Amino acid sequence: METSALESMNVENSFSEVLTQIYNAVKKKALEADDDSANLPKGLTINIGSKDDVSAVKKGGCCSA
Questions:
Q1: 63 pLDDT exceeds 70?
Q2: How far is the C-alpha of 58 from the C-alpha of 65, rounded, in Å?
Q3: Domain total for the chain?
C-alpha cells in the first residue's frame, strides 16, 4: 500500500494494517506453541490514540525545537 505522511495519504490505514498483521503473527505463534505462558490475554484492548492525538503531533511537526 502506498503511503505519504507529507500528504496524509493512507497513513492510518497502513498503521492499522501493520498492527493487524503483528497481532495475527503473535496469535498464530501462541496457538502453535500451545503453551499457557504464550497465550494472549483475552479482552485486552490496546489504545493507539485518537485522531486528536495524531493531529496534535502533526501541528508540532517532526523537527520542531
A1: no
A2: 14
A3: 1
